[in-house]
Amino acid sequence: MRLDRLVSQHSGVSRREVAGWIRAGRLTVDGVVVRDSGYAVATSVDVVLLDGAPVRAPTELTLMLHKPPGCVSATEDAQHATVLDLLPASLRRPRLAPIGRLDKDTTGLLLLTTDGGLQHLIAHPRRKVEKVYLATLRPDTLAPDTEARFAAGITLADGSVCRPARLQRLPGDRVEVTVVEGKYHQVKRMLGACGGHVTALHRQQVGPLRLDPDLPEGQARPLSAAEVEALRAAASDPIRHSHRP
Ligand code: URA
Asked: Which pTM does this prediction carry?
């Protein structure tokens, strides 16, 4: 495997950044400094060190996926393609599963992890990790007092009450919605309760992580160690990341 690819996969850092490390002489293979990003590493036998420390596969992997429409947020499904089907072999791992769900037609940021602890931390209903969505609506359907109703906590058609949320109107019959829960079809049902009909839904952000603008639809990349830490901190400290809704 190419040296830059191996180090990128094992460190969660982009290949471009890793190339800089390699140029700077920070990587050795079997004790020799290698400055060629394309150097072919024999992964099973060569000893690769970064600044003198072994580059090892992280025990857990967390991915950011730019989910396209048409696949389900599940690990297996008898009828539909799943988000796991989108991943190249190099990013597939046993136990890799989505954190929460996006509807089949929803696009945008979906996190996947092998780390059961992180999964539990973020998806647990008592945690208040903010999720930011961009919704496109049928024209002129939303009630004038929707912002206030979101802020107060919407009551859905089945009687369940949502936590306070935030709605901001945008040009072109679009709204930005920030919620701290993950009820089934939550954003569509909240907007529906205010007369809105969602024609497209896209998740832009989960906690501190925004969908990487360089990540094309259908592709995934590992989170860096710093990104995983920021996510963990957001979920562990609800106060810091739930200041507005
Ligand atoms: N709310 C929805 O209605 N759908 C999603 O996919 C996510 C949040």
From this structure: 0.76
